[in-house]
Amino acid sequence: MSSATARSTPSGRGASVGPSFPLRPVRPAAATGSGRATAIGPGRGSRPPLALGAAAGAVALMMLLPVGYLFLRTAGAWDRVAELLLRPSTWAIAGRSLGLVAAVTATGVLLAVPLAWLVTRTDLPGRRFWAVATVLPLAIPSYVGSFLYVVAAGPHGLLQRLLAPWGVERLPDLHGFWGAYLVMTLFTYPYVLLPVRAALQRLDPALEEASYSLGRGRWATFRAVVLPQLRPAILAGARLVALYTLAEFGAVATLRYETFTWALYVQYQVAFDREAAGGMALVLVAAAMALLGIDALLRERWRYHRDTPGTPRPPAPVPLGPWRLPALAFCGLVVLLALGVPLAVLAYWALRGALEGDWWVLLGPATFNSLAVAALAAVVTVAAALPVAALGARHPGRWSGLVDRVVHIGFAIPGIVIALALVFFGIRFLGPLYQTVAMLVVAYAMVFLPTALGPLRASWLQVDPKLEEVARSLGRRPWQVLTTVTLPLVRPGILAGAGMVFLVTLKELPLTLILSPPGFDTLAASVWNSISEAYFGQAAVKSLLLVAASAASVGLILRREGEWEP
Question: Where exactly are the transmembrane stretches of this chain (predicted)?
Fold first, then answer.
């Protein structure tokens, strides 16, 4: 029988799931191909090769460029920055931003965990349909979703028109916290759903069967055996949701909820106060680092590994019985709100937009540009993530932990700050790259590297280090071992990471608006311009194309699901 171990609690005692499940402190481990974990030291790994450490350090240094830009912008104006940061209005914006982050992240977890369990472990009718439908909201950009909800459920939206014969003259206003909370939750919970589903598919059912044999019920077994093993996956998804929400611009701007990102945009684009905006952005970076610090602490406490190989067999589906209808209603409500309403509104406005002239002939170049730049970004980002993933998987320690935290900074900094940082350095030091696709691709890589790092590092951990040692003992050089042994084995993580980067690049807005070369139109920028100019029909057609392209990358991710977990 296999057993699970977890880090002990601060009192030195771990939680127990029954007499047969003693929980002991574990040391950082590298996963082996047999399913066993090999300890490599208490809190630090072996010294990494110089080339690997230097490559990962170079990636981390690139990620610090926006922070360096912020310090340069605020240098000499610390008095003004301090005065701005001490204003009650600044603290109010901070409270609103962190409140939205906490609410969206917590609700996303509460939605994703039951959905993952229902579609992977139960006899829910139509499981395959729900498995796909619950992930597809990931294909809808949050700024498009916010626009669609304002059109559909605003005070005088489509829903109000349908209800007008029954005397409904006005619906509640979606602008503000509740609208931002609803939209951000509906379109970000799949970031938690995907890793939790992958983790559930890889759990050893023998642990649950042993718990049942000790007299525990299904709920007690889930709470005491399954949920603790899901914590690392939940944490990985929650980290992405929190950082994404912290840096979101399009949705909060559309719904008029003032967060740090919107305030930064106003300072940059309206007040032209770069020093004040830089100070606010530094506070945002500090908040992101605090979130990453909490994440690192929880990851240390919630680390698990398998002592024995376990069994790859799938568990028997749990019969829902009388809970079948409530489960169907729950899945149906989530899919209706996150997918059905947006697609229905898109279809309605697309039918109207198709009759508004011959503007659609311009969609071809915008679609091609979007797909091409997203593919380039996926390749560059995965290449940059490779040394970081290898360092974290093979040589865990202080250096790899520092690099890991630094590379996540870009995901939390608003795109407008990263774009202006690249403009600042590009004009002064990289003139030939200024206003080129290359600079746009670098910006995408800086922001979305964490989305590729999770699945890539997980796949690297699943490669038995002994295979690499055998290859080296046979005379293979390190680069030959990498290309002929390691990379083929981590290919599932590479493809999953590339699919995630391709997806989020298609939807990215601020970077695209600021850094796109002259005449280089993309679907995301075109959608935003149409929404801003109130051409809702055109925006709907373009959004449908964007959602279709995004859905294709979601399909790739789903095909690779189960082969990796964060």
Answer: 50-71, 91-117, 129-154, 174-194, 233-257, 277-298, 327-351, 371-393, 405-427, 433-453, 535-558
- H-helix or E-strand spanning residue 5: strand 4-6
Both tokens of 508, joined, read: 């990215």
Q: Find the helix packing angle between 536-560 and 363-394, rounded to 10°.
A: 30
**Helix 415-429 × helix 260-269 angle, to 10°:** 40
CB 190 within 8 A of CB 241: no
- Does residue 535 belong to any structural domain of this protein? yes
Q: Which of 314, 470, 460 is nearest to 382 (CA)?
A: 460
- Tokens representing 352 are 């109207």
Give the Cα separation of 488 and 494 in Å (integer): 9
Residue type, 25: P
Q: Pull the structure tokens for residue 12.
A: 């030195």
CATH classification at residue 74:
1.10.3720.10
Q: Give the whole-angstrom CA distance, residue 355 versus residue 366.
A: 20
Residue 144's nearest CA partner among 269, 263, 251 is 251
Q: How many domains does the chain have?
A: 1
d(CA 67, CA 69): 5
Contacts of 482 (CB under 8 A, 6+ apart): none
Helices (H), 28-77: 50-63, 65-74
List all residues 6 or more positions away from 535 whose beta carbon is below 8 Å from its beta carbon: 353, 356
**Residue predicted with more confidence, 346 or 289:** 346
Q: Give Cβ neighbours of residue 539 (< 8 Å, ≥ 6 apart).
A: 144, 147, 349, 353, 527, 530, 531
Q: Is the pLDDT higher at 445 or at 43?
A: 445
446 three-class SS: helix
Q: Which of 37, 69, 80, 52 is nearest to 397 (CA)?
A: 52
Tokens of 298: 């929880």
Are the beta carbons of 562 and 201 closer than 8 angstroms?
yes
> Coil, helix or strand for 232?
helix
Residue 208, in any domain of the structure: yes
Residues 107 and 232 sit within 8 Å (Cβ to Cβ): no
Which DSSP string do the residues of 76-99 spell out, in sequence order? T-HHHHHHHHTSHHHHHHHHHHHH
Task: Tell me the CB-side half-sphere exposure of residue 353, using CA atoms within 13 A.
Answer: 24
Q: Residue 297 belongs to what domain range?
A: 49-306+315-560
- pLDDT per position as a tens digit, 435-453: 788 889 999 998 888 888 8
What are 456-510's pLDDT values in tens digits? 877 777 677 777 778 778 887 777 777 778 788 888 778 878 888 888 888 888 7
Does residue 19 form part of some domain? no
Question: Which amino acid type is present at position 461?
Answer: L
